[in-house]
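Methods, example record. To illustrate the input and output format used throughout this study, we show the complete record for All-trans-retinol 13,14-reductase. The sequence lines were provided to the predictor; the line carrying structure tokens was produced by it.
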Amino acid sequence: NMWIAVVVISLALVAIMIKYVLGTSGPNPFAIDTREPLKPMVFDRKLKNKVLKQGFLASKVPQDLDAIVVGSGIGGLAIAVLLAKVGKKVLVLEQHDRAGGCCHTFTEQGFEFDVGIHYIGELLDHKPMRCVIDQLTNGQLQWEPLDNPFDRVVLGPPENRRIYPIYSGKKRYIDELKKCFPGEEKAIDEYVRLSKKVANGIWLMILLKLLPTPLAKFLVHTGLATRLSSFFRYASRSLTDVVNELTQNKDLRAVMCYIFGTYGKMPKEASFSMHSLLLCHYLNGAWYPKGGASEIAYHMIPIIEKAGGAVLVRAPVNRILLNDAKEAIGVSVLKGQEEVHVHAPIVISDAGIFNTYEHLLPKDVQTMPAYCMKQLSMVQHGDGGLSIFIGVDGTKEELGLKADNYFIFPENNLDELLEGYMKGNGEESSKKVPLIFVASPSAKDPTWPERKPGKSTVTVVSFANYAWFEEWKDDKVKNRSIDYKELKEAFINNILEAVTEIFPKIKDRIEYVDAGTPITNQHYIGAPKGEIYGADHGIPRFSVELNATIRPQTPIKNLFLTGQDVMLCGFAGALTGALTCGSVILNRNLHLDAIGLPKRVKNGNNKKKE
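The corresponding predicted structure is encoded as:
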């Protein structure tokens, strides 16, 4: 009889889940294929800035708004476009002087630099993510594949350096890895098999955020969520743990772990489930936006405007406005010393969970324990990001730069190196940076030679402890104290030494170099502790309970979250966060619509608007 009861309960659960997965009643942003023939690319900065740099004025705020979005990263722009596509009038507010969040670019001494887009996977023509991005940009955003091998893993000091190429292509990835590690075929096959199996279980993470809270909680507390999904079964296992069981070869262990930098957690603190997503994300290849990262926002903003909305910059939101019933009714924007109040029935935050709950909500709401404290107690700040921007005289051919990425590690004991680095003080640690990601944005972009002939750019990304720089956080941005500049210089010089060993031809041709530290990120992208991937992506982030609790709905009525903190980090993660947020607001499973897009677009079912 017990088994009959279990079966009955299970069937009832399945029925409710099917209703939430398939029973979508809301409007579909993808109902019409909005791709248009490619227009000529715009390289004139002044023309682009007319779209990307529209300053906030009360007079520019559209009347009768349907929603306000705080933050113009991909999570904010994507939810705004999704709503615009079903006729909603949306205002996006950005504190920086240009739209795009981590997709913005900046120019110094004639060199244009991307801050956050280095390479993106899953962009084959017929893949759902590619089709979604095509719809969100009316087919105007073009992608350029990276070289193959797209990544190179560098281990060891110059006198004992091993370079392992990483190829895309489901079969080729495996074959090339086996060539580098003869005798390790079994370990490599098992690593890929396990990664695919675990990554395929991600559907339940999305479902937990879409189901009614009581049902999501039921799945969590009965242990069903863990049983149903390989993703959650492996979520509590560290990357180090899984990889060390597969092989004794220390170089192979490092090569299996190398890509942890793309979510910012050392292997022993990283969830194997998160890592499996990254491996699978790049198996079919890697791409870069043609024309640079600013193309992303540039092609999304007009869709928001066409529906009557706007994207306004230099618009720091200092608080979310609530009515007496503690429901969100709009935001307050600081214009000089004055507050401008803007009202809308829905407020969506792409400012991250910490900024939203700790800074944007009135203090009396924050102190209500039931409200946001539980969610905040489940997450931590991610590690601070460190970027170095290098402008070089010469073409990619002259300098030996290619459309690929290098991950440089001093040795193969990654955990030990990272732990020592993060525990040290700034000055000591600047001498032993354990991970250096190096790429040339200019070499990846086929439009670069006509935009900036005879010049090249190289970007470096690593991590740094926020505490090393915290004492200078209130200094004026381009005029911080001499001690800050000295510490920054120490990092720049030590990292440049490692980079020029790999790219000797750039050494004497560097014309510009500067670094962005965690406090730089705090200023430009509003990251509370200088983090680049939002809330921390360690093992606790992937507990079933956290994923059923942190969802687009907040404890405050009419206030929603979008972007990295709702789902996962990076461009693809923040975009998935926006789809999840859109699903909740529009009462429609947009993930299912996205999965069905390639077929519909191919068959031409969704007619174009005339």
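Annotations derived from this record:
The two ends are 61 Å apart (CA to CA).
The chain is about 40% helix and 15% strand.
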